[in-house]
Amino acid sequence: MASTGAYTSDVAFTDTVKRIQAERGSRKSYARMEETRGGFAGSITPEIAAFIAEASSAYLATANAAGQPYVQHRGGPPGFVKALDPKTLAFADFAGNRQYITTGNLAENDRAFLFLMNYAEAERIKIWGRARVVPADPELTRTLVDPSYDARIEQAIVFDVTAWDANCSQHIPKLVDIEHVKHTVNVLGERISYLEKTLRDAGVAFAEKT
Length: 210
Prior knowledge:
Elements: H1 15-24, H2 27-37, H3 46-54, E1 57-63, E2 69-75, E3 81-85, E4 88-94, H4 101-108, E5 111-118, E6 123-135, H5 138-144, E7 153-166, H6 178-201
Antiparallel strand pairs: 1-2, 1-5, 3-4, 4-7, 5-6, 6-7
């Protein structure tokens, strides 16, 4: 249930948003969601942790003290965003172009937003919270590092979860990861070679590839 009369979804559904929902006919369904569920989920579930563990890409939105927004893409090996516990996410912030816009924004305003997409399955997760920059100390680095990924960790972003919600799949383009495609093609190629050899060994004639 929501605490102190507020819903977790109020992080997105301001009074103005709720007024517009009422004007356009969607308010009743969202009000019912608030009354029955207390708003959006406020902790990372095992299912969402599994979704995050597959992600190799994320978008982090921040804003400076004046409210100017900024969205930064962050990527890494699958699972580079770690669910440290049901209320805390973290990921390695690799060395880049050294503009430090996100770092500066978080120094002024810790409100942040994570957006994760799975284009192949047409799934997307929105996560509201507060974030902070943490120096890449050895203990945290061991938690976040992937030795197989060749990149220097400059610092870490620790994200305290306020709420999350899953969008519907409408209008998400179907895109697939090239490494998944390569793996699938290799598996199929090995299977075809095995079947061709089995047929030859059985004395079955078939058309050779040209």
